[in-house]
Amino acid sequence: MTTLSVDKVSVQLGPRPALTDVSLSLKGGDFIGLIGPNGAGKSTLIKSILGLVPSTGTLAINGRLLAKLDAPERAKLLSYVPQERDVAWPLSVEKVVALGRTPYLQPMRGLTDRDGARVEEAMAEADVLVLRDRLLSELSGGERARVLIARALAQDTPILLADEPTAGLDPSHQISLMKVLAGLAQRGRIVVASLHELSLAARWCTRLVLLDRGRVAADGAPQHVLTEANIAEVYGISAFLQQSAKGLIVQPLDTI
Amino acid sequence: MSYRLLLAALAVLVVLLFAISLLIGPAGLDVGTSIAGLLNGDNEAARLVMREIRLPRAILGLAIGATLGLSGAVLQGYLRNPLADPGVLGISASASLGAVIALYTGLSGAFALALPLMAMGGAVAAVVLIQLLSGTHAGTLTLILSGVAITSLSGALTSLALNLSPNPFAAVEILFWMLGSLADRSMLHVYLSLPFMLAGWVMLFALGRALDALTLGADVASSMGIRLRRTQWLAVLGTAASVGAATAVAGSISFVGLIVPHLLRPLVGAQPSRLLTASALGGAALLLASDIATRIIAPGRDLKLGVLTAIVGAPFFLWLVIKNRRNVL
């Protein structure tokens, strides 16, 4: 089973510390929701795991230090779904998803049959097969979000990191996206997503990590992390909480 | 149109235009004499015209056109900006400055290769400056701003050379050189510039996969194993070698590197890696055609190639701006 260990990771962005001594131990099957206010360090944590921002501390996958892996090796372990859903050129959905095979391509060669099969699987898994010939730039936000997840799936990594994948989506697209991510975790991957919709996070994530000004304020099962006291302290708001059959419902009420 | 068919069509076009370029010139040789002059040396005059005048001109037209098309496609892909062109890094401007200094100081009169060599020196200086200005972990914005700074500085120094030129003839010589032309180039120019252009092409063609990945942004490309520093180095050095050498022998020829990637992008499904070969062939075709046109439109008047490409290119650029504006609205 895949393990990802984050040990005392700190990141300094400009004069202020963006992350301070963050330690987490994740295993295959975990669907981790990173929650916390804007600027709490959610995106920075994702980027530091990916090696996109310089950090101190130790990051290891299956016991192997990430710092010792070269870029293509790392790309076979970690895939990334960015918050921005823009593409520079009007590429078709299928071509965008196929970009996920980049770390596996041999020099001067195109996609192999195996690459092609993996692209098909990824499109099926993220439910974008019907969109394959459309241009990404012509799709709605919800469709684009799923295509970018398919792109990350084609990369065939045991760990997938998504930065605010549900931002700007309508409730129906948010739910279908969370289902896709939860399904990936159930099939053994580690999925990490930063989220602002607390009810969505509580409903679908197996574990929540609450960040506050670059530190881990709480870490555990959704009902243990999303308490009135934690929400008041970290977000500075009061909230209405109710346990339902489908999970915890969190309705923010007012600033304190 | 399939990708291979497109490449084949462009290749046929380039071969055709290359042949036409060899057959046209003020000497007025007929086709038979031209071919005979190229292949065997029985007719001394025809041999000289073909091998020493028309052949280098056609080779340079092809190679420089390919350089401009290819580097334009690479830079648009790398900077993720459809308005980028081979001049965006400031390399054409600094190579021009090197040439202008050679003309200004009279070095080019004393030693024929001083001009192209100084121009290449200018390109090297631009690379050093880019690396100094944009530092070790440069973003594309820093790169563009460095290019703007280098272009402005080179432009100012070129103006200074014109301003202080020792005599009107030197000023005219500088001005005419800057207009860009393939006339009166020899095989020596080919031998001097072609190796650098070839080296540049190798570096630029190596970037196809990275450019594809960069379509989704630098962070995603990096997460897919693309080494961004290496990518930037190859883009800068490849452009410097090829565009520097091209500018050194032909002066600055604008718009080819901007227009060709645009025209061909829709035909290759917008994929940056596929645009590279297509754009190189397209650039070669456009420059050969333009150079042929300068000889047909105004025979004996030495219409400059760079003037023609700018006259045709600027309206196209305007159309592009208007079209993009419509897309935004």
What's the layout of helices and strands?
The complex is a heterodimer of chains A (256) and B (329).
Chain A lengths: L2 E11 L2 E12 L3 E5 L6 H9 L5 E6 L2 E2 L5 H5 L2 E4 L11 H6 L14 H13 L15 H14 L4 E4 L8 H16 L3 E5 L3 H7 L2 E6 L2 E6 L1 H4 L2 H8 L1 E8 L2 E9 L1
Parallel strand pairs in A: 3-8, 3-9, 6-7, 7-8
Antiparallel strand pairs in A: 1-2, 1-4, 4-5, 9-10, 11-12
Chain B lengths: L2 H21 L7 H9 L4 H36 L11 H15 L1 H4 L3 H21 L5 H24 L4 H11 L8 H19 L2 H7 L3 H6 L4 H23 L5 H9 L7 H26 L7 H24 L1
Helix pairs in contact in B: 1-3, 1-14, 2-3, 3-9, 3-12, 3-13, 3-14, 4-6, 4-7, 4-8, 4-12, 6-7, 6-12, 9-12, 10-14, 13-14
The fourth-level CATH homologous superfamily of chain B is ABC transporter involved in vitamin B12 uptake, BtuC
Share in helix of chain A? 25-40%
What's the CATH first level of chain B? Mainly Alpha
Number of E strands of chain B: 0
Looking at how many chains there are and whether they match, the oligomeric state comes to heterodimer
> How far apart lie the N and C ends of chain A?
43 Å
Number of helices of chain A: 9
Overall tally of domains of chain B: 1
| Low-pLDDT sequence parts of chain A | none
Mean of pLDDT of chain B: 89
What is the percentage of strand-forming residues of chain A? 25-35%
Q: Residue-averaged pLDDT of chain A, rounded?
A: 93
Going by CATH, the architecture of the largest domain in chain A would be 3-Layer(aba) Sandwich
Greatest interface (CB-CB under 8 A), with counts per chain: A-B, 32 and 22 residues
The number of helical runs of chain B is 15
CATH topology name of the largest domain in chain A: Rossmann fold
The coarse silhouette of chain B is globular
* CATH fold-level topology of chain B: ABC transporter involved in vitamin B12 uptake, BtuC
Order of helices and strands of chain A: EEEHEEHEHHHEHEHEEHHEE
Instruction: Indicate the low-confidence ranges of chain B by residue numbers.
Output: none
